[in-house]
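Researcher: Let's run the pair from yesterday's discussion. Sequence first, then tokens, for each.
Model: Starting with the first of the pair.
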Amino acid sequence: MKYNIATIHGDGIGPDVVREAARALSVVARLSGFELEFVEAPMGGADYDSSGSPLPESSLETCRASHAILLGAVGGPRWDSLPGHLRPEAGLLGLRAGMRAFANLRPARIFPELASACPLKPEVLGGELDILIVRELTGGIYFGERGRSSDGGTAWDTERYSAPEIDRLLEVAFRAARAQNRRLCVVDKANVLESSRLWRQRAQEMAPRYPDVATSFMYVDNCAMQLVRNPRQFDVIATSNMFGDILSDEASMITGSIGMLPSASIGDGGPGIFEPIHGSAPDLSGKDQANPLAAILSAGMLLSYGLGRPAEAALVDRAVASVLAAGYRCADIATGAEGEIILGTRAMGDAVAKAIAESAR
């Protein structure tokens, strides 16, 4: 079997981390007996500089023709003064819309070796953490009607959801909960917002179809507090676009480093988009200092959710855990503990590639 993987290197450290993620994928493919072809699809600020567009139509076509998309990071201060539709982030929104990627999966996991980097007290953390936030990605207030009055003194953004938009996201969340610990918490603001009342209604009506999943509900402000008070109570969280944006960033900081967190954006038609949640960090670009582990773990999600190869995805996860257990760290996850070995981007990629090969024996 041969798979085409569209690679979007993007800006800043994007090319650095995509290189290592692609290398990990290549090792897995060689050991597992399938082929990968990486096809570059330019996108982001660097491509705006060369083509005048943050997402050329040719790149969109390349992505549509692929089995999955591996993305580094886009954006940076260099392009902050551009009009909104020309900024690198507009290319990312266009990519998500073009791939019909409506569900963003963000796992927040603490590896035991990195528990000391968690800002929560050990007695609060209570051991290992493995939360999955399933965020609706193409609707809600970010895509609703917006405007400003002629005098500039009034502005508005509209939160709008339809039942089909909610239902398809909840289907993903219920299935994800089945694959984890069979607990789903739907987060909303149903005591105030009519759109949230529709979210809660649709979840209540869908829950009987998943009797093996314990379904609960929580207001978003309480969820924000509970994530730092008792994060282990959560398994899978399903929520709207804006709430998911905020809560997943909060959950990412609980893990101790944004450099460890992957993500997947999937839909019902186009290929999925797999990317680390960190930014482009232009100050680290090309310096061999970026942590590639979030991108490598995103490659693992690509194998599982994008290519339907969970066994091969497990090779990547085990390799990362093995590297951390051996004491290897990039600078952002180093704690100063005895036995830590600080590696650059390439050396960490080397260590993971070697661990994948060893774990497959």
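Model: Moving on to the second of the pair.
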Amino acid sequence: MRRPTKAIITDAGYASRYLPIAKTIPKAMLPLGNRPIIQLAVEECIEAGIKEIIIVATPEGKPIYEDYFNNAVNHIRKQLRAQGKDERYDAVRHVLDFPKIRVIQQDPALPYGNGSPIVSARDYIADDEAFLVLYSDDVVFDSSDAKKLIESFDANPNAKAIIMAQEVDASQVDKYGIISLKDGNKLDNIIEKPTTDAAPSTLASYGRYLLTPEVFKYLNNNNTGLDDELWTVDAITSIAANDDVYVVTTDGEWMTTGDPKNYFLAHLKYVLDHEDYADDVRQALGDN
């Protein structure tokens, strides 16, 4: 199996917790600082050496992503140059210099669920290549999980899948899919939102995966799960029943932006860690 050179980034859900704004703007286009959430995932892939990125979007989101990653907005560039502010265009140049980004629409014939965007990109994945999957609403600060997944694949070329995990406090396990391990660092199962007493570990699974085409045996209309949705985790645990699925713990900090509260917390962390107005924000929050 060839090591990954392609990544699938998914943002094809309804984002109903973000209505009404999500009816017009894809959730992953909401900002962290002056960059959209999805750009962090793209840059994570680039750091890992990924050559082609496939973004799977809704019909409404597809033209927005195509515009963001391809439109040079030359009229703005000319205006900035005329004003002597050409350096403000550097952020646009950075986006336009990204490797190949293909934006596709999720197949409407597939059931709802976080596995359907992956199936929608099947035609772009060869039968002999591994690939990355990143959920755009999961952001990882201070590390490239994409790079770590590929390094793990290099060390374990027999892997049929590799998933990232983060240690969480034992009191928080009932909020996450918690990993059960076997044989050291191999996946046995993922228990969804267990009680503290029933949790097999404090390792939470989230949306960073290295997969092989083996996953497509299980991601199909005949294998829907909870709420008749197509779940990536169900497919991965099915693989783990017969083949090696490795678990890697992140070196960074994973945060979700999947709902307004957690999005705000992730945005706040990003601003405090990366923006030159961070001290002003701390002062406004009374955190001196």
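Researcher: Give me one sentence on the second I can quote.
Model: The CA atoms of residues 80 and 86 lie 5 Å apart.
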